[in-house]
Design brief:
- The complex is a heterodimer of chains A (about 475) and B (about 650).
- Chain A is an alpha+beta fold and about 475 residues long.
- In chain A, about 25% of the residues lie in helices and about 25% in strands.
- In chain A, the strands form 4 sheets. Chain A has a 7-stranded mixed beta sheet, sandwiched between helices. In chain A, strands 19-24-23-22-25-20-21 form a 7-stranded mixed beta sheet, with no helix packed on it.
- In chain A, helix 2 packs across helix 3 and helix 4 runs parallel beside helix 6.
- Chain B is mainly alpha-helical.
- Chain B has 23 helices and 7 strands.
- The chains are: A alpha+beta (about 475), B mainly alpha (about 650).
- Chains A and B meet through strand 5, helix 2, helix 3, helix 4 and strand 16 of A and helix 14, helix 15, helix 16, strand 2 and helix 17 of B.
- Chain B: InterPro entries: CID_dom, ENTH_VHS, PCF11-like, Pcf11_C, Pcf11_CID.
Chain lengths: ~475, ~650
């Protein structure tokens, strides 16, 4: 075994400001150990001598500012590149730090003496836009990681409004969470750290407390009105949080967006509305356009007068991802949500960590229970299949509007509920007088359920829930996501 | 594969270290050769025994100052390689012995750090180390004790006292015989009697942890009594009071208050147990609490500590006399049957739990001021450090334009690496090489410790994803407040979550209580006099009887345990709650007991009428619902885990901290 260990590992010496990039095939994993020097994965520094595991078709890069030696357990698709946009990203970080510092000073009422008086005293509230495969999420992660590493106690909010990405929850969700420690990278199933579990974790990034809304679809164009509303809900809560926590506000906010915001083809009207929704809801003051000239010009034209629009280079390392890959990632994400992050270590590697945590603590036990149809009220927002409004005959109105919650009866054949992913909603306002018709559109999600079996004659269904909490009497929303536990 | 190859031998529920079973035999009192270390599977380690020994010896040689990071790193290493416990023990023993012979001119306190390491490993990793160390700890301790100066001796004595309750079950860390042997060697035959007062009075400083650990201990006793005799309402009452007292202490009280609480506590514990004569110490009744009653005969010098000034009235001996005589506090000698229920009220009357929360002893005030001073100094340092950082950041000639961003060379390395020279070897997070930075790093390492320990205890327990938190909790969660949030991932417990966890735990315990259904009464429906709901009976396989779950018997009537506790709490804790709220200066809706929460209607959201999401945290909702779901057996399993606001899990308190 020891021999095998030595033959399957390989050392790489990285020059300063280069990165080692790798792509994993399905079912393989990789362990990386920093032998000497300093190295980071998307802004999160690696500790020397620890084995870091990567899996689930992870595509990532080890970057070094000052040079390092890394030991790679099991070579895969790999190469070293010396052309990275990291210098630009680092400059961005410093520029944002300047904004944070000024905002903090203004908050404390300290005088601004040595400084450009014209500079804004607002903390950075950044919207990252760009086309598909431009590395938006990675950029967000790097910026957040640098902020928490500054040693100033910053804890920026990271918001994800890309429903196909899903952030900490399941795909189909929009969410935001404050980040206190660097976000590790180990698998595309939880690219931004993971949401809290009952297991003890060493890194708070593996026990994040996101606020989650459920959109339920991968495509923003499927129900732009709902997207718009959820974005505004998320923004309202972020602003409430900032009103309550003025010191926390100084750390700023970084918003990751779906690629549909950046792709200027076809029906672009909803795209602009959604960007506008983000800018308003999160009070954005900086838009970063990743590697897209035309989009940059477009953003400059619309927002250039009221906020800063900066075009930044995209990394040459981003991988073109196809549709089937994204599907597999969705499966990994839901599996990880329910069962935890399990990456088998390559042969010969032990004592490894996944995203900074020991392997043992990452396995989760979901709960499968049989409940009655009446225990859970299930809704679908809008009709199941919906043509765009523009495609309707002139003068025709919808029977069911996009925003109307429609009850779904599991007893009806073809309800589409089998294997569906449900967003379990937080309880409605306990004060009856405060309730309103569309309240369920504005409720956050407490967790996700999968309907794994429907027994129509006995009016029972089997649900897979993340924990043993009771779902009786609750409301859930079904989207278009499905998942089967393989 | 696991980092934690050592399974815990004690069947201890992770979050309730005082609810252990009565007759535990888990701690192996072995004094002969400890079993050989678990043979390491050849693949599963990176260091073979020889290189591990070399590595550990090398690292040990750096331990010639009392440095917490070094101690912690060494004990983490020990934890990671617990299969080489033998080697660690040999290295450590050799290190302590050698450091004397070789460096005769070296200050003798040099050995203290090594003992602190031994202490830290035994307490934090415990298994198998305590067992392994027990073999040589007696001669080693006494030998060292004979060679060192007074100052260091007193530190060793302090440490020795913590060993009395150092194991995970608050029993003797290395077992009774070694403990007694060392104490005899240190304090002579009557050792175990007078040393304690030397420690507790001589130093004059009582730590919160100390009081808490005694509280836990007493609580454990009472709860065991309660388990053995479920409808003993007196014990039930005691447990409730002790719970409140614990919250009080956790919330922070002054030195004097701690002192008095401790004194009261001891007199109460002593009550039922016959006073053993120090000469005939036996395992059964050799309990740390018993020794405190006797008068001190010696006072080891504690140069750094001011003797604790009692409030003018008393001699240095009996703690109980600190309480003004008017309060009719039982004196230790004639402690009546433990009227623990009076404890709280006595304390209240005595002004221990003063409304203002101001400490009354001059010494305490001075101490507090010193602490404040320290905080101020730290603040100044911190402010200066961050001012320097701000200036450095602002002096960077970078503007937020595409041109500047792409063309300039960033000075990032300085900010992300050079400025933060200290790095955690576990996770790579960096800290500034300043006083503040070091302090933060220590906290961070402490956190790793706690997490590792928790993980160790939790093996095989099964975990699950928590529910996401509700809007209210998310918006008001201050963990990310600047300066408060730490880069290291210590999630602060918000008081709400802490209280909720406490409530959930108590709730689970109550629900586990049962009353055996009298013969022939199986068919008769019995309802709880408080909530009027029918008690559900079920077959309990352990004793093959029908029982009422979640039930207590009181005055021949059967109550829901939860209802009963609630009713009790609402009468008992009223005063405490009031005091507590006054003392903390603000009303905390989540203070001591659940009823306050349940009784209060949920606050209406302060939102305007635009489309918002006025939802509440699932935990609050669950608590509200909890009152209705009484008998359902499932509930007891759910409450802790599943209602979960995630910070629950952060709530394990370690009653004893390693001395440093």
């Amino acid at each position: 075994m020891t021999e095998e260990q030595s033959t399957s590992t390989k050392e790489w010496h990285l020059e300063p400001e280069t990165e080692y990039r790798f792509e994993l095939d399905p079912g393989t994993s990789l362990a990386i150990k920093l032998v000497r020097g300093h190295a980071e994965v998307f802004g999160a520094e690696l500790a020397e001598g620890k084995q870091y595991l990567f899996g689930s078709e992870c595509k990532a890069a080890i970057f070094t500012w000052k040079g390092c030696t890394v030991e790679i357990s099991q070579p895969s698709t790999e190469y070293v590149s010396d052309e990275t946009p990291m210098a630009a990203y680092a400059n961005l970080h410093i520029a944002f730090e300047q904004m944070r510092v000024r905002a903090l000073r203004t908050l404390h009422g300290s005088p601004a003496h040595d400084d450009d008086p014209s500079a804004s005293a607002e903390p950075p509230r950044v919207l990252v836009v760009g086309p598909e495969n431009s590395g938006k999420t990675t950029l967000c992660k790097i910026l957040v990681n640098y902020a928490v590493r500054a040693g100033q106690g910053w804890s920026p909010l990271l918001a994800n409004v890309d429903p196909s990405e899903g952030g900490w929850a399941a795909p189909g969700a929009l969410s935001a969470a404050p980040v206190h420690s660097p976000l590790p990278t180990s698998s595309p199933a939880n690219p931004l750290g993971s949401a809290a579990t009952s297991a003890p974790t060493s890194l708070s990034s593996n026990a994040l407390l996101p606020l989650v809304y459920w959109y339920g679809h991968a495509e923003t164009k499927r129900n732009p009105l709902l997207m718009d509303r959820l974005i505004r809900n998320l923004g309202d809560n972020v602003n409430d949080k900032y009103d309550f926590d003025t010191e926390g506000k100084v750390s700023g906010l970084i918003v990751d967006t779906p690629s549909s915001f950046g792709a200027g083809t076809g029906a672009s009207d909803h795209r602009h509305k959604l960007i506008k929704a983000c800018v308003d809801a999160f009070r954005i003051n900086v838009i970063l356009v990743v590697g897209h000239e035309k989009l940059n010009v477009e953003m400059q034209r619309i927002y250039g007068s009221q906020l800063t629009v900066v075009k930044i280079p995209k990394s040459g390392g981003v991988v073109e991802l196809d549709h089937t890959y994204r599907e597999r990632i969705h499966n990994y994400q839901l599996h990880t949500y329910m069962y935890g992050q399990i990456i088998p270590a390559p042969p010969g590697i032990t004592q490894a960590t996944v995203g900074g945590e020991a392997l043992t603590e990452l396995t989760l036990a979901p709960s499968s229970t049989v409940i009655s149809f009446d225990d859970l009220s299930i809704f679908r927002i809008g009709a199941e299949t919906m043509a765009p409004t523009s495609a309707l005959p002139i003068g025709a109105t919808r029977v069911v509007s996009e925003m109307q919650p429609v009850p779904v009866d599991p007893a009806q054949p073809g309800s589409g509920l089998l294997n569906a992913v449900l967003g379990l909603l937080a309880p409605p306002n306990p004060d009856e007088n405060e309730r309103y018709d569309e309240e369920i559109l504005d409720l956050t999600v407490t967790g996700f359920l999968i309907i794994t079996n429907l027994d129509i004659p006995r009016r029972k269904m089997t649900i897979l829930a993340p924990n043993q909490g009771s779902v009786a009497g609750k409301t859930a929303i079904v989207g278009t996501y499905e998942w089967q536990d393989q | 594969m696991s980092l934690y190859t050592s399974q815990s031998h004690y069947g201890q529920p992770p979050y309730s270290h005082y609810s252990q079973p009565v007759a535990h035999n888990g701690y192996p009192y072995q004094y002969q050769q400890p079993p050989p270390p678990i043979p390491p599977a050849p693949v599963y380690h990176q260091l073979d025994p020889v290189s591990f020994r070399r590595e550990y010896t090398n690292r040990l040689s750096e331990l010639n100052v009392n440095s917490r990071p070094i101690i912690q790193n060494l004990s983490m290493l020990a934890q990671e390689y617990s299969r080489y416990a033998e080697i660690v023990a040999q290295c450590l023993e050799a290190h302590i012995r050698r450091s004397y012979i070789k460096h005769r001119q070296v200050p003798p306190w040099m050995k203290l750090p090594a003992f602190y390491l031994l202490d830290a490993i035994s307490k934090n990793v415990y298994e198998p180390y305590a067992r392994v160390f027990a073999v040589f700890v007696v001669p080693l301790f006494l030998e060292t004790y004979g060679q060192i100066d007074e100052n260091t001796r007193s530190k060793m004595e302090e440490m020795l006292l913590t060993w009395r309750t150092g194991n995970p079950q608050s029993k003797e860390l290395f077992g009774v015989p070694p403990q007694v042997a060392i104490e005899r060697g240190v304090w002579g035959d009557s050792g175990s009697s007078h040393n304690s007062s030397g420690f507790y009075n001589g130093s004059g400083h009582i730590t919160k942890a100390q009081v808490l650990s005694e509280l836990e201990f007493t609580l454990g006793q009472k709860e065991r009594a309660l388990q053995a005799n479920p409808y003993d309402s007196t014990s039930q009452n005691h447990v409730n009071v002790l719970h409140q007292l614990r919250k009080l202490v956790e919330a922070g009280v002054s030195q004097e208050e701690l002192q008095q609480i401790l004194a009261q506590l001891r007199s109460l514990v002593r009550g039922p147990v016959p006073q053993p004569s120090p000469a005939t110490v036996t395992h059964a009744n050799w309990q740390p609490q018993q020794v405190y009653s006797t008068q001190p005969t010696t006072q080891p010098p504690f140069p750094s500590n001011v003797p604790y000034p009692t409030d003018g009235v008393k001699g240095e001996g009996s703690h109980t006399s600190i309480v003004p005589p008017s309060t009719s506090t039982p004196t230790p000698a004639l402690a009546p049957p433990p009227e623990i229920a009076n404890l709280l009220s006595t304390l209240l009357k005595a002004g221990v739990v003063s409304a203002s929360g101001t400490p009354q002893g001059a010494g305490a005030t001075a101490k507090e001021e010193a602490a404040k001073q320290e905080i101020v100094e730290n603040d100044t340092l911190e402010r200066e450090a961050s001012r320097a950082y701000r200036q450095a950041i602002l002096s960077q000639p970078i503007r937020l334009t595409s041109a500047d961003i792409t063309r300039k060379r960033p000075q990032i390395v300085e900010f992300l690496y050079d400025q933060l020279a200290a790095q955690c070897k576990q996770c790579g997070i960096r800290f500034a090489d300043t006083i503040i930075g070091k302090k933060n790093m220590e906290d961070h390492l402490d956190m790793h410790f706690r997490q590792n320990r928790k993980a160790n205890q939790n093996i095989g327990r099964g975990h699950s994803r928590s529910w996401f938190i509700g809007v209210e909790d998310w918006v008001h969660d201050l963990t990310n407040a600047k300066g408060k949030g730490r880069a290291d991932g210590v999630q602060r417990l918000n008081p709400k979550a802490a209280a909720a966890a406490e409530v959930a735990k108590r709730d689970a315990e109550l629900r586990a209580m049962f009353v055996v259904v009298p013969n022939g009464a199986e068919a008769t429906p019995v309802s709880c006099p408080i909530c009027k709901e029918t008690l559900k009976s079920e077959f309990f396989e352990d004793n093959e009887d029908w029982v009422w779950k979640n039930a207590v018997m009181k005055d021949d009537r059967v109550y829901h345990a939860t209802c009963h506790a609630e009713a009790l709490a609402s009468t008992n804790s009223l005063a405490a709650r009031l005091r507590f709220e006054l003392a903390t200066g603000r009303s905390r809706s989540t203070t001591p007991e659940a009823p306050s929460l349940r009784a209060t209607p949920p606050p209406s959201t302060l939102r305007d009428s635009k489309s918002k999401s006025p939802s509440f945290s699932p935990s609050l909702e669950a608590k509200l619902a909890g009152t209705k779901r009484k008998v359902d057996q499932n509930d007891s399993t759910i409450t802790g885990e599943a209602d979960g606001t995630p910070p629950f899990k952060k709530l394990a308190l370690s009653p004893l901290s390693a001395p440093s």
